[in-house]
Amino acid sequence: MSYQDSLLRRFDALKAQAQDALWALTSCVCKPSATVKVNGRTYKIVKALGEGGFSFVYLAQDESTGREFALKKIRVHNSEGVKGAMREIEAYRRFRHPNIIRIYDSSVVQDPSGEGKIVYLFLPLYKRGNLQDAINANTVNNTRFSEKEMLVLFKGTCEAVRAMHDYHALVPINTPDSNAPVTRAHHSAQSSTSTIRPETFRPQPSKLKDGYTNPSNIAEDDDEDEEPEDDHSFPEPEGDTDGGYSYGGSVPLVPPKNKKGTSAKGKGKPGVVFDGDEELERLNAQQPSHDAGYDSGSANGEVPPGMKRMHVPYAHRDIKPGNVMLSDEGNPILMDFGSTVVARMYIATRSEALTQQDIAAEQSTMTFRAPELFDVKTGVTLDEKVDIWSLGCTLYALAYNRSPFETAEQAGGSIAMAAMNGQYKHPAAAAGAYSQGLRDLIDACMVVDPASRPDIHRILELTDGVLRTLG
Question: Which family does it belong to (predicted)?
């Protein structure tokens, strides 16, 4: 990624934010509320929940059912941007796990300004917010998690990560066996939602139950009947949204639509799956639990004729408290897969190394970023261990209300140098608050050399060990 490309992306991001801010101001002055029509359904935009470089997240309500969603609106300015957004959607289709966010619906429409497209993602609304919200509340109230509560949240997050690191892709049966496919890093710049695929295989398009299809088969919504009636006068976020509601994408669960915008299986019913809680419960009941040894990427999953499963680990690359939502039951839900890549990536040239550094700088939060992503070396293979480091930083933040490297940032030092040298400390003031086992677990995740860093299975074993000592 060249310096010019980086500047262009930043300019596009600022432009997108300015457009949304202008529409928000127009809404405040001229209209009591905004609406958007997607896939034949009209949604009322209640309020803004958060924003990112190219995206806003809104609280949306289906006008016909009253059901509430988190609506993520992504602006893309070219075909590569659309592909990147669809790869983000595909990532949520790929990883089916109770601790990974699901998607209800999605749509790609023309931007009324004539500059690119808008991608809408309809996601669950988690009213309890995310772990960063909980950390912020602890800071304000001078409280802390109990050690057991913290470890249960950490373990659930690790189980979501395990689903990614243990992913098994469906490939043609004649694909050469490899337990650890390694892809060559691309020379070209990647979009902020890019996924690098292994050259050794290409996962096949698949159908879900009841005719639902892989997002790679989703066409742009360009029917006249489906043209979005979007006034775009969306409200702006209220207050400081850093670390809040940064929802990621997932998979569209919508049957193919006919020209009238109705479901291919339904009888005149708009092409939206989740009309009520009964449908959601039915679909959830059809998905065997992870504890039963199956999810869509499990080595034990059903295999169609002529296909087999190959281990293809993926890395999230932006694990942090702000990307772990809390369900109504208090379970951790990993989200925001825009930075997800095939984990094992061989770096052959300096150009590839610099490209990966630039991608990490854009997509991976600095105070949670693994040291090998700050200074990418040639002749090495980046892998899923980057997530283990981020998990350690996340557990540290749960324990001490901040990243281990926020101190370096506040002191004007180099976060990159601190991370690459493993320079962090457990706060002396909190020495008696948690067990030595918890401190050792954090330290195990934050080993500078990725070759010596434990894998996700070992981290889960260590977590269970500490939990057992707590009774």
Answer: Belongs to the protein kinase superfamily.
